[in-house]
Design brief:
- The protein is an alpha/beta fold and 395 residues long.
- The chain folds into two domains: 3-45 and 288-394, Alpha-Beta Complex (Aspartate Aminotransferase, domain 1), CATH 3.90.1150; 46-284, Aspartate Aminotransferase, domain 2 (3-Layer(aba) Sandwich).
- It has helices spanning 3-6, 18-23, 46-60, 74-84, 102-113, 128-134, 153-162, 183-193, 219-223, 253-267, 272-283, 286-313, 338-347, 379-394, and strands at 32-33, 96-99, 119-123, 140-144, 146-147, 150-151, 166-169, 199-203, 230-235, 247-250, 317-319, 327-332, 350-351, 353-354, 367-371.
- The strands form four sheets. A seven-stranded mixed β-sheet has the order 2-10-9-8-7-3-4, sandwiched between helices. Strands 11-12-15-14 form a four-stranded antiparallel β-sheet. Strands 1-13 form a two-stranded parallel ribbon.
- Strand 3 (119-123), helix 6 (128-134) and strand 4 (140-144) form a beta-alpha-beta unit.
- The longest helix is centred in the last third of the chain and has 28 residues, at 286-313.
- It starts with a helix and ends with a helix.
- Bound molecules: pyridoxal-5'-phosphate.
- Pyridoxal-5'-phosphate is lined by residues 37, 101-103, 127, 170, 175, 203, 205, 235, 237, 242, 247.
- Pyridoxal-5'-phosphate binds at residues 37, 101-103, 127, 170, 175, 203, 205, 235, 237, 242, 247.
Length: 395
């Protein structure tokens, strides 16, 4: 069969990455991986999930196993609306769509908003799978400059003149850089884009994972709500368990309705049982208690990585100093390509993701993303030492 005769033209925009192939090797025994964006599996609340599942089945029986509404379980939508509401910001379930991971929220944005050649303004670098979700709709990506405080003031000031259909930002502990958008820049962004016709997409899977410094209000809070032009994507993947695939979108009610229509054709609705499970674990306090454990454990791993970088790579690279989340982003100082370094690092039993693919302008060849949530704090210094050794072998 000649598949090229059959496949839709847009599939040529769905790319397999060379890096991904290399990262297949990271399952080898003894490998220390800073590559994936994986939470620590030993911190999943397995016993609590089992107890909550039993409780749900005992109490509700078949109800939690039935088909449900596309928009999501009403009680979970209410929980999301209530937890984000505060004085001056009132949300109802009509603003909330439960999604199959927040990744589905990104996919739905592509389906209901992006036409060929639409301009999308993005932090450069940005989350790779947002680019993958949107690329088949053939938009034009407009890279915006970032520094250690996120989008720069100059970049924000330029956005209205570019007239993008949407601006996509990950304001807290960004993927891949780990940086946080400073408060005055958040305010500037809201003020600049008010009434501009550009939709702000605020993707916030990491906001609750803060280990140092003070929590900042989100764009949703600063804008006083999603109407008329803001979407917030949220997720239970990083605060509970990604395998449950439960996330949400908060947005203007009309847009939420359109996204629900698109979702209906995709999967009818997010798994009913998983939505009830998440709700039960929110109500009985497991999510909050687990969050405290995650903050302590990931905070320790983050410090271990920053200290190891200081010990082994000072002078050879620079890196970000995240206050939360799961990633540190480093830049090699000696002209070495991160992809070349990865091949050597994998030989020494350590892996990371080269940063080039997160960039939309072809730059970033010398950058790398280092995940610190998955490897144990004892292994992190050894992994960084091996990277330093691989780098020394290349210079
Ligand atoms: C910035 C960002 N957005 C969205 C997602 C998707 O997460 P999920 O679909 O598990 O909610 C991720 C996952 O790593 C992410 O880093």
């Amino acid at each position: 069969m000649d598949w090229n005769q059959l496949l839709a033209g847009r599939t040529s925009l769905m790319r397999r990455s060379a890096v991904r192939e290399l990262l297949r090797l990271t399952n080898r025994p003894g490998m220390i991986s800073f590559a994936g964006g994986l939470p620590a599996p030993e911190l999943f609340p397995v016993a609590e999930v089992r107890a909550a599942a039993d409780q749900l089945l005992d109490q509700h029986g078949s109800k939690v196993l039935q088909y449900g509404e596309t928009e999501g379980v009403a009680e979970l939508r209410d929980w999301v609306a209530t937890s984000l509401s505060r004085p001056g910001l009132t949300l109802s379930r009509d603003h909330v769509l439960i999604t199959t991971g927040s990744q589905q929220g990104l996919d739905l944005i592509g389906r209901v908003l992006i036409d060929p050649n639409d301009k999308l303004a993005l932090e450069n670098p940005t989350y790779l799978a947002a680019l993958s979700a949107w690329r088949p709709w053939q938009p034009q990506f407009l890279p915006l400059t970032c520094d250690e405080d996120g989008l720069t003031s100059d970049a924000i000031a330029k956005v209205p003149g570019l007239r993008p259909k949407l601006l996509y930002t990950i304001p807290n502990f960004q993927n891949p850089t780990g940086v946080t958008l400073a408060l005055e820049r958040r305010r500037q962004l809201i003020a600049r884009l008010a009434g501009s016709g550009t939709l702000i997409v605020e993707d916030d899977p990491y906001g609750e994972l803060r280990y140092r410094g003070e929590a900042l209000p989100g764009l949703l809070e600063l804008a006083g709500g999603p109407e008329p032009q803001l979407l917030r994507l949220g997720s239970f993947s990083k605060v509970l368990a990604p395998g449950l695939r439960v996330g949400f979108v908060v947005g203007p009610a009309d847009l939420i309705e359109k996204m629900a229509l698109a979702k209906q054709a995709l999967d009818l609705h997010t798994a009913t049982f998983n939505q009830w499970l998440v709700l039960e674990l929110l109500r009985n306090g497991v999510v909050d208690r687990n969050l405290s454990k995650l903050r302590a454990a990931y905070g320790e791993r983050c410090s271990a990585m920053l200290e190891a970088l200081e010990n082994h790579l000072r002078g050879a690279a620079t890196w970000t100093r995240p206050e939360g989340g799961m990633f540190v982003f480093a830049r090699l100082g000696n002209g070495v390509s991160a992809t070349t370094l990865l091949a050597k690092a994998v030989e020494r039993g350590v892996a990371f993701v080269p940063g080039g693919e997160f960039h939309v302008d072809g730059s970033g060849e010398q950058t790398l993303r280092l995940n610190f949530s998955h490897a144990s704090p004892e292994k992190i210094p050894e992994g960084i030492r091996r990277i330093a050794e691989a780098l020394a072998g290349l210079s």
